[in-house]
Please model this.
Amino acid sequence: MTPYTVLILLVVAERFAELAVARRNGAWSLARGGREYGRGHYPVMVGLHTLFLLGCLVEPWAADRPFLPWLGLPALALALAAQALRWWCIAALGPRWHTRVLIVPGLALISSGPYRYLRHPNYVAVVVEGVALPLVHTAWLTALAFTVLNAALLTVRIRCESAALAPSRALPGPGAAS
Model:
């Protein structure tokens, strides 16, 4: 097993940890009157992220991509930084972080942690990871395809969150993984 395969498997394990946190946080939100928005795009998001990780594994092997240290090492640093940012977001949002768009009425927007600096720091982490992780082992087709498809998905996702957080729906509260 190559070090890159181990890296991707560690990211897969991290995704399962995220899902466990999201499941627990979803129960917390629903118990407080939370409402889910944008169910239609969620399966697309799961599929895209699953195919992304598969592409990270398959492309270097199928296309006989080399490991190029001048590209792979900075990409690894960026991928690790994206993971750190993602978990900073999770910590800042606490029980209001989800993989779905779940809004609990009456909660104020979070303005601490990375949310002090960015409106959607979790999505910054996703975008950086989407480019960096495949480039650790020169999987540029995966990086390109995920970036294009993820841009379309994030457009839908951010619009969904913005509409769900609109004052006419409920008092603002992040409640979503953003």
